[in-house]
Amino acid sequence: MIHDKDYIMRIVKQFSELLATMMLGKNEGELKDEQTLFETQMRDVFKMDFDELSAKSVEEITEWVEAKDDTHQIAYYELLGNLFYYKFHGVPDRNFAMRAKLFYETWLQKSKIFSLPVMSKLTELNNYLNEAT
Prior knowledge:
The protein starts with a helix and ends with a helix. It is built from seven helices and no strands. With 133 residues, it is mainly alpha-helical. The protein has one domain. 83% of the residues lie in helices and 0% in strands.
C-alpha cells in the first residue's frame, strides 16, 4: 500500500512539473505530443479529463482531495492550482482564475510555505478578477 501511495505522489509531482514547464514556455516537444502527455497525466492523476474535472464544483474537488492522506493533500492542491492557472492562461475564464486562486491559497495555508512564484500568480489572478468585475 505504501508503494502505491509513493507511485501516486510521483505521478502528481510529474504532472505538476509538466504544467510548470508548459507555463514557462520551456517545452521543446511538439504541441501534439505535449497535449497527449497532458491528457495522459490528467487521466493518471484524476481518472478523468479536464472538462470532467472542471465541471465538478469546488466543493466536490475539495472533498476528493480531503479524502486523500494528509501528507498528499498539499501536492494535490498545488497541482490543482497549477492546472487551473495553466488553463486560465489558455482561455482567460473567470471560473478558472477563481479556482486557481482558491487552490493556490489552500496550498499556501496547508503547506505553510512562502512561495514568490505562487504569490506572483495570485497577484495576477487577483488583478484579473478585480478588472473583470
